[in-house]
Specification:
Elements lengths: L1 H5 L4 H11 L1 H25 L7 H11 L1 H31 L1 H8 L14 E7 L4 H15 L4 E5 L5 H4 L8 E10 L3 E2 L4 H12 L12 E8 L9 H12 L3 E2 L4 E4 L10 H20 L30 H11 L19 H8 L3 H19 L8 E2 L6 E2 L12 H9 L3 E3 L3 E4 L2 H7 L6 H6 L6 E5 L30 H17 L9 H7 L4 E4 L11 H10 L3 E6 L4 H5 L6 E6 L4 H8 L6 H13 L4 E8 L8 H11 L3 E6 L19 H14 L3 E7 L4 E6 L3 E2 L2 E2 L2 E2 L1 H13 L12 E2 L34
Parallel strand pairs: 1-2, 1-3, 3-5, 5-6, 5-7, 12-13, 13-14, 14-15, 15-16, 16-17
Antiparallel strand pairs: 3-4, 8-9, 10-11, 11-12, 17-19, 18-19, 20-21, 22-23
The structure holds flavin mononucleotide (FMN) and iron/sulfur cluster.
The site of iron/sulfur cluster has 12 residues, from helix 16 and strand 12.
Pfam families: Flavodoxin_1 (PF00258), Radical_SAM (PF04055), Wyosine_form (PF08608)
Enzyme class: lyase
GO biological process, one term: wybutosine biosynthetic process
C-alpha cells in the first residue's frame, strides 16, 4: 500500500502491470500482433477482387485462406518462447548454486533431482615452516576454485579450534590439513597450538567422542622418510585425532616424502599432485552429493558393517554405515594413501593400541597385573600393614616390597588423556577453567562462590587410586581402585615440586596463543590455589598432611575433596582452606548404585565421614551432584544428612554427562536442567532454616547454599580472604596446633554479580562470556 502510494498508482494498476509482465501474457500479445499483421497483408491482396462481399465476410474468408501462415506464426512464437525460458532457467540456477552442483544435477538421471548444496567450500589449513605446505595449500586452493567451489587458505596458527572447529561440522565445508613434521616428530611452530588442542580434545571426555561428528576432512602430511621413527608423525596424528573425535575422513591420508629415493612418486611434489588429483575427484563426488561407502573388501572381513551379502539391501542410514565402516575396518598401514583403490580404511587398531583404552579394560589390566604380581610374589592381598604416623591410612611397612601404583599400561592411557604423571601415584592436569580464565572467558564456579582465580589454580592429586567407582566419574575408572595404600610411595616434597613444574610448563604453552591475556598469563605462572580433586582419593596418600603443609608454606590455598569413605583420615587431617565431602546420594541404596563403593561397610563409613566433617573448624562443604531420576527425589534424607555434618556450605550441581562408556549407565536424560536444579535447591532450603541460597553459576548448572552465619548485616560473605587464611594457618603451625581458627576468621564479602538472582547469573563481568556450540559439552569444574 505504502509503495503504491509512493509511486502514485493504485493496487489495481499495479496488478495489471504484473499480469502484463508475465511471460504468458507477453507471448499472447506477440501472437495477436503477428496474426493481425499477416491477416492485414493477405486481405489487402484480395480486397480489389472481392469488393462485392460484406467486410466481416471478407475478413473471415481471408483468415481461412491464410490459415497456414497463422499456424506457422503460432509455432514460431511458441518455439521462441520455450527456448527463451529454458535458457533463462539454466542461467539463474547455475548462478545460485554454482556450476559444480549444476553439473552434478545435470548428470543425474534420477527423476527427483537433488538441488541442495553438498559442499559450501573448502578450507585448506597449512602447518608449514619453510613454505612447502603453504605452497601446496595455495596450489590446491586455485584448483578447487576452478571447479567453481569456494576455497580458503588458512594459516593454522590464525585459527582457534576451540571456537571454530565444531562449526565446520554443520557448515558443509570440507577441511583439508596440509601439515609438515619436524624434528622428533614435532609440528611446525604455526601448527603447535592446533595440534596440542586437538590432541587434548581427542582424549578429553568433556569434548565427547562425537565432538566433531559431521566434520569432513582430508589430511596430507609432509615429511621425510630419512627421519625413521618420526616420519610424517604430525599428519598421522592430526588424522587420528580428528577421527577419534568422530570427524569423517573423506579419503585416505596422503603422505609426501622429501626423500626422493623412497618417495612413491619420485618427489614430494609428485606425491602431492597424485594425492591432489584423488582429492579433487573425491571433492567433485561429494559436491554431487555422492556418498562413498566401504568397498566391503576391507581386512575386517565379517565384522565390516558394509559387507554385503548377495542381494541384500544396504542399511537405511547409509551415511552412518559409511562412518561405521570407515571406523571399523583395517589397520594403520591402510590409512596411508596407496595406489590401490581401497580407500577409507579405518583405525580400530589405533584405538585399541592404547590411545584410548576402554576404562573397563583398564580395570582388567590392573586386576590381571595385580594378580600376576601377587602370584609371582607368592602372596595375596592380605599384606602386612601398619598405620602411618602422619595420618590414619594403612600402608605397608617395607617400601621395597611394594609395587608401583601406575603400571606402564595405565601410564600410557593416562598420559594420552592429558594427565601429567608424577612419580608413581600422582598427577596434574590443566583444568578447562584455567584455560578459560587465561583467555578472559570466565572462571569456574569456585571463582564465583569463593573467589578462586581459576587461571592460578593447579588441579592435582597425590593419589590416583580411589575406593569408589562412581557412575559419573569423569575419569571413567582409568584410575586404580583399592581400600588401602599398598603401593610404593613418593615423598610429598617431590610430588609438589614436580606438580608445580609440570603445571607451569603447561601454562607456558599458552604464551602467544590467540586470546590469552598477557597479564593473566604472567599471573598464571604463579600458582595460588591447589584443587586436590583431579582423580582418585587424595586422602589415601599417607603423607597427605605433609603435602598440605607444603602447599601452605608456598602460600597456596588447599581445596580438598574426599569421597566420604575414610572417616579416620578426615579426623586426622590438618586444617585445609576448604574441605569437601562428595554427597552423591542420600540413602544407602542409591549411594551403592551411584558411587559403587569397594568397602562393604560403605554406609557406616559414609555417615561417620559426615560426622567427622562436622567436627572441623575450618570451612566445610557438602557437594551434592544431582542425577535426575536417581537421587533428586530424596529430599528428606538429604536434609537429615545435612543435619549430621552441619557443613558451612552446600554446593548443588546437576550431573555432567561424561559421554557413553561401558563403565557408566548414565545418559543425557539423567542431566537436570538448570531450572530443575534451582527448584531442588529451593525446596531443600525450605527444609533447612539455617541455610539460604547465596550464589549461582548458571553456566555450570550449579548453586551454592550457605549457612546463615556467613550472612552479615544482610550481606553474604562466602568468598575467602586467602591472605588471611595463610596468616592463620601459619600461626596455627607455629603454635604446634594450639592456636586454632575458624571459617569465620577468613571469610570475605561476595561480589554482587555472584549472588543468586543477579543478572550476571554468576558470570564475572570483568570477563567476556563465550557460548559453546554444544551446551551439553560444558562442564562445571572440579
Ligand atoms: C630440521 C628438519 C627436521 C625434520 N624432521 C622431520 C621428521 O622428524 N619427520 C619427517 O617426516 N620429516 C621431517 N622433516 C622434513 C619436513 O617435514 C619436510 O621437509 C617438509 O616438506 C617441510 O615442509 P614445510 O616446508 O612446509 O615446512 C624435517 C625437516 C627439517 C628441515
Ligand atoms: S574447576 Fe577446580 S581445578 Fe579448575 S580452576 Fe576451578 S577450582 Fe581450579
Amino acid at each position: 500500500m505504502l509503495m503504491s502510494q509512493k509511486y502514485g498508482c493504485t493496487q489495481h494498476q499495479l496488478q495489471r502491470t504484473v499480469y502484463f509482465n508475465t511471460p504468458l501474457a507477453k507471448m499472447l500479445s506477440f501472437f495477436v500482433i503477428i496474426v493481425l499483421c499477416i491477416s492485414r497483408v493477405s486481405t489487402f491482396d484480395t480486397k480489389v477482387s472481392q469488393n462485392a462481399r460484406s467486410p466481416s465476410e471478407s475478413y473471415l474468408i481471408s483468415i481461412w485462406q491464410n490459415r497456414l501462415y497463422l499456424y506457422s506464426a503460432a509455432a514460431l512464437v511458441f518455439g521462441i518462447w520455450f527456448s527463451l525460458k529454458l535458457v533463462l532457467r539454466k542461467k539463474s540456477f547455475s548462478k545460485d548454486v554454482g556450476p559444480w552442483v549444476y553439473k552434478a544435477v545435470k548428470s543425474n538421471d534420477s527423476p527427483d533431482r537433488d538441488t541442495s548444496v553438498h559442499v559450501s567450500g573448502v578450507k585448506i589449513f597449512y602447518g608449514s615452516q619453510t613454505g612447502t605446505a603453504k605452497g601446496f595449500a595455495e596450489e590446491l586452493s586455485e584448483e578447487v576454485k576452478t571447479l567453481g567451489i569456494p576455497a580458503e587458505v588458512i594459516d593454522i596458527k590464525d585459527y582457534d579450534p576451540d571456537d571454530q572447529l565444531a562449526d565446520e561440522c554443520t557448515n558443509k565445508s570440507v577441511c583439508v590439513f596440509l601439515v609438515a613434521t619436524y624434528t622428533d616428530g614435532q609440528p611446525t611452530e604455526n601448527a603447535e597450538w592446533f595440534c596440542k588442542w586437538l590432541e587434548e580434545a581427542s582424549t578429553d571426555f568433556r569434548y565427547g567422542k562425537t565432538y566433531l561428528k559431521g566434520l569432513r576432512y582430508a589430511v596430507f602430511g609432509l615429511g621425510n622418510s630419512v627421519y625413521v621413527g618420526h616420519y610424517n608423525t604430525v599428519g598421522k596424528n592430526v588424522d587420528k585425532w580428528l577421527w577419534m573425535l568422530s570427524g569423517m575422513r573423506i579419503m585416505t591420508r596422503g603422505e609426501g616424502d622429501c626423500n626422493v629415493v623412497k618417495s612413491r612418486n619420485g618427489s614430494i611434489q609428485a606425491d602431492f599432485v597424485a594425492w591432489k588429483v584423488r582429492f579433487l575427484k573425491r571433492l567433485l563426488a561429494l559436491a554431487k552429493g555422492e556418498k562413498k561407502s566401504c568397498s566391503g573388501n576391507c581386512k575386517t572381513g565379517g565384522s565390516c558393517k558394509n559387507k554385503r551379502k548377495d542381494g541384500q539391501e544396504k542399511g537405511e542410514e547409509e551415511e552412518e554405515e559409511e562412518k561405521a565402516a570407515l571406523q571399523n575396518n583395517s589397520s594403520e598401514e591402510d590409512l596411508i594413501e596407496s595406489s590401490s583403490d581401497e580407500e577409507d580404511s579405518g583405525l580400530q587398531d589405533e584405538k585399541n593400541s592404547g590411545s584410548v583404552v576402554d576404562m573397563e579394560d583398564l580395570g582388567k589390566i590392573m586386576n590381571s597385573a595385580k594378580k600376576a604380581k601377587s602370584k609371582e610374589e607368592g602372596r595375596g592381598d592380605g599384606q602386612m600393614v601398619k598405620l602411618s604416623k602422619l595420618n590414619g591410612v594403612k600402608k605397608i611397612e617395607d617400601d621395597g616390597e611394594r609395587r608401583e601404583m601406575i603400571t606402564p599400561a595405565l601410564r600410557g592411557a593416562l598420559t594420552k588423556q592429558g594427565y601429567k604423571l608424577i612419580g608413581s601415584h600422582s598427577g596434574v592436569k590443566l583444568c578447562r577453567w584455567t584455560k578459560s580464565m587465561l583467555r578472559g572467558r570466565g572462571g569456574c564456579y569456585k571463582h564465583t562462590f569463593y573467589g578462586i582465580e581459576s587461571h592460578r589454580c593447579m588441579e592435582t592429586t597425590p593419589s590416583l587410586a580411589c575406593a569408589n567407582k562412581c557412575v559419573f566419574c569423569w575419569r571413567h575408572h582409568t584410575n586404580p581402585v583399592g581400600t588401602e595404600w599398598r603401593w610404593k610411595m613418593d615423598p610429598a616434597e617431590k610430588i609438589l615440586q614436580d606438580a608445580l613444574e609440570k603445571h607451569q610448563s603447561m601454562i607456558r604453552q599458552f604464551r602467544g596463543v590467540p586470546g590469552v591475556k598477557p597479564e593473566r598469563y604472567e599471573e598464571g605462572l604463579a600458582v595460588k590455589h591447589c584443587a586436590l580433586s583431579l582423580v582418585g582419593e587424595p586422602i589415601m596418600y599417607p603423607e597427605i598432611n605433609t603435602f598440605i603443609r607444603l602447599l601452605h608454606s608456598h602460600r597456596i590455598s588447599s581445596f580438598l575433596v574426599t569421597n566420604a569413605q575414610f572417616p579416620k583420615e578426615i579426623r586426622s587431617l590438618v586444617p585445609v582452606t576448604q574441605l569437601y565431602v562428595s554427597v552423591d546420594a542420600s540413602t544407602k541404596d542409591s549411594l551403592k548404585k551411584i558411587d559403587r563403593p569397594l568397602f562393604k561397610d560403605f554406609w557406616p563409613r559414609f555417615l561417620d565421614s559426615l560426622r567427622a566433617l562436622g567436627e572441623k573448624r575450618q570451612r566445610t562443604v557438602y557437594r551434592l551432584t544431582l542425577v535426575k531420576a536417581w537421587n533428586v527425589e530424596e529430599m528428606q534424607s538429604y536434609s537429615e544428612l545435612i543435619a549430621l555434618g552441619q557443613p558451612d556450605f552446600i554446593e548443588v550441581k546437576g550431573v555432567t554427562y561424561c559421554g557413553e562408556s561401558s563403565a557408566s549407565s548414565l545418559t543425557m536424560a539423567n542431566v537436570p536442567w538448570h531450572q530443575e536444579v534451582v527448584a531442588f535447591v529451593q525446596q531443600l532450603a525450605d527444609m533447612l532454616p539455617q541455610y539460604e541460597i547465596a550464589c549461582e553459576h548458571e553456566h555450570s548448572n550449579c548453586l551454592l547454599m550457605a549457612h546463615t552465619k556467613f550472612k552479615v548485616d544482610g550481606e553474604w560473605w562466602t568468598w575467602i580472604d586467602y591472605e588471611r587464611f595463610q596468616e592463620l594457618v601459619q600461626a596455627h603451625e607455629e603454635s604446634g596446633g594450639q592456636q586454632g581458627f575458624s571459617a569465620l576468621d577468613y571469610m570475605a564479602k561476595t561480589p554482587s554479580w555472584a549472588l543468586f538472582g543477579a543478572n550476571e547469573q554468576g558470570f564475572d563481568p570483568a570477563d567476556t562470556r563465550f557460548q559453546r556450540r554444544n551446551k551439553t559439552k560444558d562442564i562445571s569444574g572440579c
